[in-house]
Amino acid sequence: MKALQYREIGSRPEVVEVPDPEVGPGQVLLKVTAAGVCHSDEFVMSLPADQYIYGLPLTLGHEGAGIVEAVGDGVTGVKPGDAVAVYGPWGCGRCLMCAQGKENYCLNAVAEHIQPPGLGAPGSMAEYMIVDSERHLVPLDGLDPVQNVSLTDAGLTPYHAIKNSLPKLGAGTTAVVIGTGGLGHVGIQILRAISGATVVALDVNEEKLSLAREVGAQHAMLSNPDAVDAVRELTGGRGANAVFDFVGVQPTVDLAGAMAGSEGDVTIVGIGGGALPVGFGRIAYDVAVRTPYWGSRSELIEVLDLARAGSVKVEIETYSLDEAPKAYERLHEGRIRGRAVIVPNA
């Protein structure tokens, strides 16, 4: 079968022929219908050799959906022909966090060398993929896999981040979204759907801000130091009740810290390497700073429910598997509007 692989440190991904996977006990074989392209892949492929821990060659794709092709011994929860989405942050299934469905925070994953698909295990950018357990599959129940595959990360990650701040986002509050791309434009929709907050979007150019307005942001402005005073003015000097930074570079993290009002939240979702100094006088009083990772299985079900209700829709560009390297080039150049989706078996 064909697969998109990262094969050499510092190289670009390439489409290659690899052996068809064989399903083992407890596993599920999927015929992949859609796979999402993510900035996390870019991050992984930018790591130097001394920091790279994901193995080579690596079949990319941690956002996946497919049709069950075959099941291994002991699998009873899904059957061939089922249309499913893949819950990506795999865990041990036994620890306290996994028992709550929070496999994104599995206590044993590192020690047991459990890695997500596309981030260590073979991912979804292939004609077929192996899912290690049926518990990592969620029924699509009529959702279009191509339109919605990105919700397994680009929807789940902002949903998890926003849910933590919901007690602070009632009527009359303000939430700031920094970065309105793949995750941010979904985050704006989630905020509009489940909170009472006024949503302020920040990004680096008018094209990106236009998308933010299209998906529901009430205010949109350039992401620069002037935005701090603008947010303060919008909030009567109080500052934002919650700031969600989907970029995470130092300039955006600095903005997030400066915009948050007393008892507000700063949630750094992006993996740009920025850090926020926390200490008396460094940020507003009683600000909580979080760095969440992905989300729980139950939250993925909730995100897909939002999509079924029409509350969340991902802006997508589609590519064949042979065109996947081009999708990553466009991602690297910042030319993807919303999210790129690979359709391996088109």
UniProtKB/TrEMBL annotation:
Q: Where is the Enoyl reductase (ER) domain?
A: 10-342
Q: What is its EC number?
A: 1.1.1.1
The family assignment reads:
Belongs to the zinc-containing alcohol dehydrogenase family.
What name is this protein filed under? alcohol dehydrogenase
Q: Which domain of life is it from?
A: Bacteria
Q: Which UniProt keywords apply?
A: Metal-binding, Oxidoreductase, Zinc
Instruction: Enumerate the CDD domains for this protein.
Output: arabinose_DH_like (cd05284)
Organism lineage string:
Bacteria, Bacillati, Actinomycetota, Actinomycetes, Micrococcales
Query: Is rRNA-binding found in the keyword set?
Result: no
Q: Which SMART domains match?
A: PKS_ER (SM00829)
Which transformation does this protein catalyse, written as a reaction?
Answer: a secondary alcohol + NAD(+) = a ketone + NADH + H(+); a primary alcohol + NAD(+) = an aldehyde + NADH + H(+)
| Cofactor(s), by name | Zn(2+)
Q: Does the record's keyword annotation contain Signal?
A: no
According to the UniProt record, what class of enzyme is this?
A: oxidoreductase
Per its record, what are the GO molecular function terms? alcohol dehydrogenase (NAD+) activity; zinc ion binding
Instruction: Give the signal peptide as a residue range, or say none if absent.
Output: none
